[in-house]
Structures are given as C-alpha cells and as structure tokens.
Specification:
The protein is an all-alpha fold. Helices cover 76% and strands 0% of the residues. The longest helix is centred in the N-terminal third of the chain and has 42 residues, at 2-43.
C-alpha cells in the first residue's frame, strides 16, 4: 500500500514537472515569435509598402500573401510593420502604467492612512470609468498622435495592478521579519528594497504581461476611430479603419488578415502572462 502511494506520488511529480516544462517552453517559443515580429517589422524597408497602382486590389497569392490594397501596397508588409508598431506602443504604455501602479500601490500601503485614502479614492475613480472612455478623453485632450495615445495608455491601465500591489504590500509589512527589521532600526527605504520589492516581483511581472494585450487592443481601438496614431503610420488600427470602406467591394483580405494577426498577438501575450502566473505561483502549479 505504501509502495503504491510512493509510485503514484512519483508519477504525479513527473506529470507536474512535464506540465511546468511545457508551459515554460511554450512561453519561450511565444516570446521568440513576438520578438521576431518586432525585429522583422523594424527591418522592413518603407519601399515594401510603396504605392504601386499596377498591382492594386490583388487577392492573396504567393507573390502577396495578404494581397494588396487600393494603392497596390503589400498588405503582408503593412501588417507586420503595424504589429511591430503596436507592440512598441504597447511596451511603452505597459511599462509606464506598471511603474505608476508600483509607486502608488507602495505609497498607499506605506505612507499612512491619509495617503492610503487618497490613492484608494483615485483607484476607485479610475476603475469606475471604462478604460476606453478615459483613454479617448486623454488622447483627444492631448491632440491624438503618438504622444496622446501613449500618455492615455500610461494613465489609464494602472488602477487594477495598483490595488493588487497595495494589498500585497500591506500583507508583507505585517510579516514578522519586517517587524524585526523595524525594531532593529532599519529605514523604510531599506525595508522596501530588501523585503517588499523582492516579494512584489512576480506580481509586477505577471501584471505587466497581462496588461500588455489590453494596452495593444485599446491602442488599436482608439487609432481605429481616428484619435490615436497618425494616418501616415502603418498601424493596425489605421489599416482596419481604412479597409472598412472597401469590404463591400469584396476586398475581404484588407481587414481579415490584419485583424487575425492582431488577435493572435494579443492571445499570445495573454497566454504568456497566464503561463507565468502558473510558473511563479506554487499554489497554481498544483491545479
């Protein structure tokens, strides 16, 4: 009986190890693919999307995998360049929003009741309004373009992560080893660097990865309605917005392939974030 239990336990551990390894490999492959999209998009020359009226409105083929648009521009090159641009904008927005969440979350939990009340009220205020509405208002106020959309993304996606960080910091600061450090005369900065930040690293990393797809989608949505990136940029939102007027003419590929690629990029980031959550959380790994 005991031997059977040991054998079963070994089999469960082997299965768990293989499961964690599969998720790790999947995350690495997905990250490489995303990096490849960014690199290829950055290396593509502007001549690849130059106007060519002779080859306009061509359906997908081996010469033009995603077809061409009404100006004869290669849709595959435009889509890759648009995805690369969206990832860059999403990276800036997610980093900025994560930084705000970290600063405000730690401040709410460590700077007294007054700061906690103010920051908690600010978090509730932002969470009470949909991200997209606030993002549109900020982007419109700043005149749109790259600056407007980036600032809007940075200032609208931090509240949920800030609330998580605040709760984590409040739990950590009541731990016994933190209380001992206080009794030994350690400063708040020393405690934050040596005790709080190391415990927050998994939450920050996972929150950043899960925030990324939302940032990309919201950037594309705002650009789609004309308040985001400049129409001269090969952004996915601009491509989708321009293609709407040609769908009735049967040029389905103008919106289908860019939209599908955007969905795949978003799902890939979301999957990486979920895998990291399982890999970094021991309680999740046993589910």
């Amino acid at each position: 009986m005991i031997q059977n239990l040991h054998v079963r336990k070994k089999e469960e551990n082997r299965f768990l190890l293989n499961r964690r390894q599969r998720k790790l490999v999947t995350s690495i492959v997905a990250a490489i693919l995303l990096l490849g999209v960014v690199v290829v998009g950055a290396l593509l020359d502007e001549d690849r999307i130059a106007t060519n009226l002779i080859a306009r409105n061509l359906a997908p083929s081996f010469d033009h995998l995603f077809g061409t648009d009404w100006l004869g521009r290669d849709m595959f090159a435009r889509t890759i360049m648009g995805l690369s641009l969206s990832v860059k904008v999403g990276l800036i927005g997610a980093i900025g929003s994560t930084s705000i969440a970290l600063i405000l979350g730690m401040a709410a939990a460590t700077m007294g009741k007054v700061a906690d009340r103010i920051i908690s009220w600010l978090i509730d205020l932002f969470l009470s309004v949909p991200h997209l509405v606030t993002l549109i208002l900020i982007a419109f106020t700043l005149g749109g373009g790259f600056k407007g959309i980036v600032m809007g993304l940075v200032l609208t996606h931090w509240p949920s992560l800030a609330r998580v960080i605040r709760a984590e910091v409040m739990q950590i600061r009541s731990a016994e080893y933190v209380q001992i450090s206080k009794q030994l005369g350690k400063s708040r900065g020393w405690i934050a660097v040596h005790h709080i930040l190391p415990h927050l690293t998994p939450q920050i990393l996972i929150g950043f990865m899960l925030m990324f797809p939302h940032v990309i989608l919201h950037e594309s949505a705002v650009t789609f309605i004309g308040l985001g990136l400049s129409p001269h940029e090969p952004a996915i939102g601009i491509i989708l917005s321009e293609s709407m007027r040609y769908l009735s003419a049967g040029m389905w590929w103008l919106a289908f392939f860019p939209g599908l690629c955007l969905l795949m990029i978003v799902q890939t980031f979301d999957r990486i974030g979920e895998n990291l959550r399982i890999l970094l959380d021991p309680t999740k790994s046993n589910d």
